[in-house]
Design brief:
2 copies of one chain form a homodimer. With 157 residues, chain A is α+β, with helices and mostly antiparallel strands. Helix content of chain A is 15%, strand content 36%. Chain A has 1 helix and 8 strands, in the order ββββαββββ. In chain A, the strands form 2 sheets. In chain A, strands 1-2-6-7-8-5 form a 6-stranded antiparallel beta sheet, covered by helices on one side. In chain A, β1 (31-34) and β2 form a beta hairpin. At the A-B interface, β3, α1 and β5 of A face β3, α1 and β5 of B.
């Protein structure tokens, strides 16, 4: 199976609730390139409800957030011509997150995320995301991602 | 025990993952007045991790979001001089959510939310929130909450 951006995270940075492959309680979102855009598909659980029939807004925000920071890391590797996952790792955190909820997001079908890189600098990347269900854009996100400060990076094995 | 804003939600609107008292998988945040501000305290779980020692950003966004929509409902009752929980219910959804992550949020101590109502209209309320751990503001949120569209409201029992 094709490896996602998150599957290349170093083990010490792989426990995020939203995107860590090693967080067994978490959402474990998986992001991939599709040309110049990044994509992810998330299958919500019944309990990810706002009210009957619709996804709660915190989930929408969470998956946009983690998909964006993963995209930022992948984009950095690509910008430097480095193989994804090569050391030292790129790993981004969120400086700001903005979500516009355009329509209620139906709970049931897969949620599709599709992101564009709006601005890329060495330590700061801006990502914009459309969140779609059944081909309708129900939310739009904008994330300013910054490289994780060095003093917060656990030792990389 | 004092009832929170969320404890007054009608049963049909009480299943939100973030704030529904009837979502057994959910976060079940509880919000209260403290003078003109609203407050909530959230106790994160170990798995709500971004990376070791810190809370993941999606949780920060989620609790700001739900605390804000709960505050919007409570503020509407108060603005109309009605008892909270009286019918017909006020229930708000999020039109937009903005979070600035100022510092990494330590994972372990209680997370405190403290919100101010910036603007209040009949169907639209703007709420700003400081999120604090150990008295340090680690994130700031701004939510534009709008009354849930009538056609989305399940029948109230």
């Amino acid at each position: 199976m094709k490896k996602s951006f998150q599957d290349y995270y170093p083990e010490t940075l792989s426990h995020c609730y939203g995107c860590g492959p090693n967080n067994t309680h978490g959402l474990q979102i998986k992001s991939y390139w599709d040309g110049d855009e990044s994509i992810a598909v998330f299958h919500p659980e019944k309990h990810h409800m706002a009210f009957p029939g619709f996804v709660y807004g915190g989930l929408v925000a969470s998956i946009i957030d983690c998909h964006s920071t993963g995209t930022a890391a992948a984009a950095s590797y690509r910008a430097e011509g480095r193989e994804i996952g090569s050391l030292p790792p790129f790993r981004f955190v969120t400086a700001s997150l903005h979500v516009d909820y355009l329509l209620p997001t139906p709970l049931g079908p897969p949620i599709n995320l599709r992101s564009q890189i709006i601005e890329i600098k060495k330590r700061k990347i801006i990502i914009e995301t459309n969140l779609l269900v059944n081909d309708a854009i129900t939310a739009k996100g904008r994330v300013v991602a910054v490289q994780i400060p060095d003093h917060l990076v656990p030792e990389t094995s």
